[in-house]
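Lecture 7, part 2: worked example. A protein chain together with nicotinamide-adenine-dinucleotide.
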Amino acid sequence: MTPPTHIINEHKRADTKHDTTIKEDCTYYGGAGGIGQAAAKVFAAKGARVVLVDRDEDALKSVVSSLGDDIASYVVADITHPEQVEGYVAAAVERWGGIDIFLANAGIEGSISSIPDCPIDVFDQVMAVNVRGVWLGLKYVIPVMTERGGGSIVITSSTAGIGGSAGISPYVTSKHAVIGMMRSAALECAPLGIRVNTVNPAPIETRMMRSLEEMRVAAADNSEITVERIKQATASLIPLLRYGYPEEVANMMLFLASDESSFCTGGVYMVDGGRSAGSP
Ligand code: NAD
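Predicted complex, written out as C-alpha cells:
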C-alpha cells in the first residue's frame, strides 16, 4: 500500500502555496461516464491515485487500463445500495490508505415527459441515484476523510440545479436537492477541515446529452425535428453557443479539489458557457 499524503498538510500551507497538483489520493464514482472519465484523466495527470466506481464494469476496465493499474483501480457498485457504497469506500481505504478527494459524480437523466405523464418509478429511480446515491457517498466518506484530518468533496449538480426545465422534472428536482445537501454538508464539515462544493455544468458532450436529444426527438413525433436541430437549439441558448467538453468540467473539479480553492466551501460553481447569466 502506498503511504498516504494528508491533504490537511497542504491546507496548512495554503496561504503560501497555490498549486493545482493533486498529490493526495482521490476516489469518486461515475468513473466510467463521460465526465467521470475526463476527471479520472485530468486528476491522474496531476498525480492523483484514483478509484473509479460505476455499475458498468466494461467501461471501468477500459478507463483503468488506459490510466494504468499502478495509479487507478475500480469497484463495480450500484451507488443506491448502502452496502455497496460502504464497500467502495472500504476498497478505496484498503487500496490507498484513505480518501482525500471525493467526486460524487454519477447521475442519470430519467425520461422526458410532463409531470402528470411521468411514471412514478422514473421519479424514484432518478432520486435514488442522483440524491440518495450522493447522500450515501457523503455518509460513508465523511468519517474516513475526517480520520485523515480533512479533504474536499465535489458533487456534480447542473444548470438544472438552479433553474427549471420542462419535461425533466425528476432530474431538475434531484439537481436542486444536491445543492441543499452540499450546503448542509459544507456547514457540518467545515470544523472537520472538509470543504464541500457543487460543480454545475450546462450541456456537455457526453452520452447523457445524446440520450436527452434522442428522447426529445421521439417526444416531438415530427420528422423535421432531428437530433442535430435539437442540439443546435439547445446550444443557441448558451452565450458561448456550444456545448461544453467533459475536460472543462473536470478542470473545475480539479480546482475545487486542490489548494487553489482553499477558501471555497458551500459554493455553487457554474461551468455553463454563460447560460446562468441569461441567453444570447
Ligand atoms: P454519463 O451517462 O456519461 O455518466 C454517468 C455515469 O453514472 C455512467 O457511467 C453510469 O454507468 C453511472 N451510473 C448511473 N447510475 C449508477 C448507479 N446506480 N451506480 C453506479 N453508477 C451509476 O453522464 P455524464 O454526462 O458523464 O454525467 C456525469 C454527471 O454530470 C451526472 O451527475 C450528470 O447529471 C451531470 N451533468 C451532466 C451534464 C451533461 O450535459 N452531460 C450536464 C450537467 C450535469
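The chain is about 45% helix and 15% strand. Residues 44 and 68 are 10 Å apart (CA to CA). Keep this in mind for problem set question 3.
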